[in-house]
Amino acid sequence: GAGVSQSPSNKVTEKGKDVELRCDPISGHTALYWYRQSLGQGLEFLIYFQGNSAPDKSGLPSDRFSAERTGGSVSTLTIQRTQQEDSAVYLCASSPQRAGGVYGYTFGSGTRLTVV
Amino acid sequence: DAKTTQPPSMDCAEGRAANLPCNHSTISGNEYVYWYRQIHSQGPQYIIHGLKNNETNEMASLIITEDRKSSTLILPHATLRDTAVYYCIVRVMGSTGNQFYFGTGTSLTVIP
Question: How close B15 comes to chain A (CA, Å)?
Answer without folding.
Answer: 28
